[in-house]
Amino acid sequence: MKDNRSLLEDLALESVQRHGLKALSFRTLADEIGIKSSSVHYYFPEKSDLAEVLIARYRDELFSSLQAIELQSSSLKKKISAFITIFERVAKDDRLCLCGMLAAEVEHLSEHNKQLLASLFSDMEKWLTRTFELQRTSINSSLTSAQLARASLSGLEGALLVDRAMGNHRRLKAQKEFILSQLT
Amino acid sequence: MKDNRSLLEDLALESVQRHGLKALSFRTLADEIGIKSSSVHYYFPEKSDLAEVLIARYRDELFSSLQAIELQSSSLKKKISAFITIFERVAKDDRLCLCGMLAAEVEHLSEHNKQLLASLFSDMEKWLTRTFELQRTSINSSLTSAQLARASLSGLEGALLVDRAMGNHRRLKAQKEFILSQLT
DNA sequence: GTCTATATACAGATAGAC
DNA sequence: GTCTATCTGTATATAGAC
Fold first, then answer.
1. Residues A68, A57, A17, B124: what is their CA dihedral angle, to the nearest 10 degrees?
2. Is residue B143 helix, strand or coil?
3. Which of A20, A101, B7, B67 would give a disulfide with A96, using CB separation of 3.0 to 4.6 Å?
4. A146 CA → D12 C1’, Å
């Protein structure tokens, strides 16, 4: 049995990935677990406090996935495939990546949360850059590892975005083929 | 001197590309040209009516740009470069592509506007697919023209999205290099 | 076309009782 | 921790006068 704090975080994360932070309401959130909105404010005084927790949680779970990839996969192609699997799971769940959704709403974020978001993107890119660079010889492209990392991450974010509007997963599939076609 | 209808459309388009449709307020819009919100309802009875006009306008301007590209550019690389220029202009103006922003907010669109958005994406992909296919011999990739089109468009949308969160244009630049690296 | 006035709904947030 | 009650702000939308 989970405590209310965790339940609220779970529901909030799902809601933000589906409908956005601006559309998230403390009232609706409270209704979903049968408490009042004032009780939600007990856990998260302001909406920005909740957003901060969501970003931190997403970051933690993401980084443990990345560590698992480093341990389990050997070839570069396998590592990048496993990385893309993270996005495929998000797509299957009819969600956007939290980062992608917040990026669309960046003008509504607190300054602090804007920085957290930027550093999360930056760290994902760094992981990709390092992963590419460590097995650079497996790459067949004129681009630098950093450029490939930037294009790959933003490409996957865009694929999730457009696929949601189109009701299928064709762009994520195309993006995956595109990225993997650069690796041997 | 533009009429109020056009002024409202201009301001609304800019606002949606920057802050999203959900954040767009008839009151604020009215204030910006010195009329009352009830007068905005005279032109656009409901918010979804305004959104529909914005999508149609965006579509018209986009397609005339695409036609110009077909007439002016010869090589495939030049055509695709010119296509990417459209996104570079959007980025320089600190906006998102209207389609990308609405895709993030797709759960809040009316059924009709959801369809308009999907068909706009679809037509952009068709244009790209046709353009790639017509000069297929200039492409150095194992992907089909349709897959390249899907990956390119969603990649550019994602680049705009992530770049906004990061405060620079590095992902759009990387995406451009990535796409053009497949063309001879 | 534009206004005033208003109905209605919902948002974030807080005070204070239990 | 959770509640009731409330303040305050803002949103969409409409009726009816000018």
1. -50
2. coil
3. A101
4. 47
**What is the pLDDT at residue B1?**
79
Please check whether residue A182 is in contact with residue A137, taking contact to mean a CB–CB distance below 8 angstroms.
no
Q: Is residue B97 part of a domain?
A: yes
Q: Which residue is nearest to nucleotide D2 (CA to C1')?
A: A39
- Degrees, nearest 5: CA angle B165-B170-B172: 90
Model pLDDT for residues B45-101, shown as the tens digit of each residue: 999 999 999 999 999 999 999 999 999 989 999 999 999 999 999 999 999 999 999
CATH code, domain with B77: 1.10.357.10
**Rounded distance, CA A121 to CA A99, Å?**
7
- Looking up tokens 């992981």 gives A127
Q: Shortest CB distance from B147 goes to which of A104, A107, A177?
A: A177
Best mutation target among B162, B163, B173, B184 (most A Cβ atoms within 10 Å) is B162
Of A62, A74, A64, residue with least CA distance to A156: A62
Nearest-5° Cα angle at A111, A122 to A56: 55
Contacts of A167 (CB under 8 A, 6+ apart): B118
DSSP string, B81-103: HHHHHHHHHHHHTT---HHHHHH
Q: Is B174 within 8 Å of A150 when comparing Cβ atoms?
A: yes
How many interface pairs between A and B have CB atoms less than 8 angstroms apart?
173
CA dihedral of residues B41, A165, A11, A51 (deg, nearest 10): -70
CA pair distance B66, B82, nearest whole angstrom: 9
pTM above 0.70, yes or no: yes
Which segments of chain A have a pLDDT < 50? none
Instruction: Please indicate, yes or no, if residue A18 is contained in any of the structural domains.
Output: no
Amino acid at B107: E
Answer whether residue A87 is part of any domain: yes
- What total number of domains does chain B contain? 1
Asked whether residue B40 is domain-assigned, the answer is: no
Residues 6+ apart with CB under 8 A from A176: A81, A84, A88
State the residue range of the domain holding A168.
Answer: 46-180
From A47, A52, A43, select the one nearest A8 (Cα to Cα): A43
